[in-house]
Amino acid sequence: MSRGQHAPGGVPRRAIALGLFVVASLGVGLLAYTQGWINPELIQRTVAESGSLAMVAYVISVVVLELLWVPRAWGLFAGGVLFGPVYGCLLSLVADMIGALLCYFLGRGGGRKWVRSLLETRPRAARVVALLAERRGGLTVAFLRVTPVAHYTVVSYAAGVAGVPVLAFVLGNAVGIIPGAILYPLIGSAALNPSSPTFIIGVSVLAVAFVASLLIARWYLKAEQRSPASR
Question: How far is the C-alpha of 26 from the C-alpha of 32, rounded, in Å?
């Protein structure tokens, strides 16, 4: 694998963009809440009264947004606000898995040609496809899920195009999405009380986890470049 394909210098740019997105999302949400532009209590009451219909609508919405390349964090935050940390976590896991599998099977099956042309418009996607083509196990999928290397949807499409086995993709995806599915809904739920210890600790843990995942990503990509299998 050439140095250009997995240059670790590409990780920080995405990491900065992702970090700014998370900070901006939290900031906009807090501003809307403190200014009274939204009424969380009314929204939560409406959701509670809707019962299972609201849950189904949430799962469908998250799947559609992921297919449209919307950052996954929005759906996870919303799950916490609407359903609380427990149900928000469980529903986001279901939605993320459905969305990932839809993209995966499009890339692996009849939509393979279309997905390839779509990924060709994203230079970083070529590196992800190459990595998955060489390291086709579930650990690689999990690694790509928990580190700021590539967009959630890109990884799903790339795994299908690269021919990652179904079981490896499902297991790796399931393991990789769990940390975010727990942490983001927890922060989203606690965001209604931004001075609470839960919110402050949750944001602090998110910041530490983000930096740690960035460092791990840089180390992994450098090790990948040095390994004989990548040459």
Answer: 10
Task: Name which of 105, 95, 108, 101 is nearest 184 in CA terms.
Answer: 95
d(CA 231, CA 85): 45
Domain that holds residue 185: 10-226
Tell me how far the alpha carbon of residue 164 is from its chain's centroid. 19
Tell me the C-alpha to C-alpha distance, in Å, between residue 223 and each of 1, 7, 201, 218. Answer: 12, 11, 33, 9
Element (H, E) at 185: helix 166-190
Is this structure's pTM higher than 0.85? Answer: no
Q: Is 83 helix (H, G, I), strand (E, B) or coil?
A: helix
Q: How many angstroms separate the CA atoms of 14 and 24, rounded?
A: 15
Q: Is residue 160 part of a domain?
A: yes
1 in a structural domain: no
Q: Decide if pLDDT at 181 tops 60.
A: yes
Helix ranges (DSSP H) in 35-122: 40-50, 52-67, 72-108, 112-120
The domain tally of the chain equals: 1
pLDDT confidence of residue 9: 44
Through-space distance between the first and last CA atoms of the chain, rounded to whole angstroms: 5
- Could you tell me if residue 5 is inside a domain? no
195: number of Cβ within 10 Å:
7
Place of tokens 């969305």: 99
Are the C-beta atoms of residues 171 and 161 closer than 8 Å to each other?
no
Instruction: Tell me if 218 is assigned to some domain.
Output: yes
- 8-state DSSP, 230: G
Q: What is the mean pLDDT of residues 208-225?
A: 75
d(CA 226, CA 60): 42
